[in-house]
Amino acid sequence: MTSVCPSCFNALPDDTISYRCATPTCEPQPNQSASEYAGTSVMTRPTFTRMRSSSDEPLPQSVPCRGCRRPATQEVCPTCCYDLPAGWRQATVFTIAVTGARGAGKSVYIAVALQQLMRYAQKRECTLRPYTQGTIDNYNKYYYHPLYQQNMVVDGTPEVSSGGSYQKDPLIWQLSGQHIGTVFVVIRDVAGEDVERIAGNPKHFAYLSQADLLIFLFDPMQLDSIKQLLSGVIPDPDESRLGLPADQVLAKVLGQVGGGHTPLALTISKFDTLHQVTKVRSPLAQAFANPGARLNQDDTMARQHLSPADAAKDLERDLQLLDAELSSIYQILGQDSVAVQATQAAESGQVAATRRFAVSAIGETPQHANQLTERGISPFRALDPILWGLSRKDIRL
Question: pTM, whole model, 2 decimals?
Fold first, then answer.
């Protein structure tokens, strides 16, 4: 079994291993490979790579440092030089990249989706817990505390080139249970500003093409037609937080993806805003009028008592119906170009598959920046993209 790097998402070669010296007497030096994959300047202590000559030869447990002559024992990714957690080569890993324009709600979605995944895992007799100290620190500080303890609107993800770009370290979570074993769920949060400014094919976006799941979020309130329709029904969005149109951003994201490995979850975020169209006269109101429609229902927790196989079948039936309903929603919204891009990417083999989703992390539109919600966080279908991606990899939670 081949594991993957939690940062660049590349497979760790079976015949090659790299170690970084951790001795303080060895001074950090500029690391070109690490810098290219990080998207910013990186300094590391010396790194050494060894290849085994035959499959029967075991990989070394350390490599002598040429500088201090002591054993270099911190294993790093041979591709991007990222430090690997202990025992990572034996890990089963599921990688997720969350992308979208500025203001699409990526960080809020990640914060809530992980809480929902934790809750759902418990219902399925599994556990989900942070695996690294960096994950604990970053998730609590930048995701959990602002939402769940301070009830505040989360700040946008900083650009990777900024000094406070905490998202350069992936969130690594350990998902364990009798029927799934142990799976490490790795999530990378992509700053909307970075996505909107992509030019060419920089290596620090190469992981998008290696992800086991690519979630693309876009906010319907970016559309002038929806802003005008719901003006006075919900608060007007903060224009300074909104990024480029979804079709332009998706084109940039797909420009980094190829090889047909990654499935694309095309996801309308903040879907609770569209649930408000029943209060106005609009063709959209009729689409939302049926309370039995899948876009008005969330049966995630209802599957908790089903067997893993039956839960997977029920999820697929549910998502097929939702996908069909959302197809007409995209047409009414005038976002055919977004759906067409995703479909063409799947048909051409650029991505492994595409599926439409609709999620709401909070369940309501914030009334002002100092108060995120008045009723408490009430997610809607937040786990659909993740459960779909896990199921595609035969991880049936």
Answer: 0.94
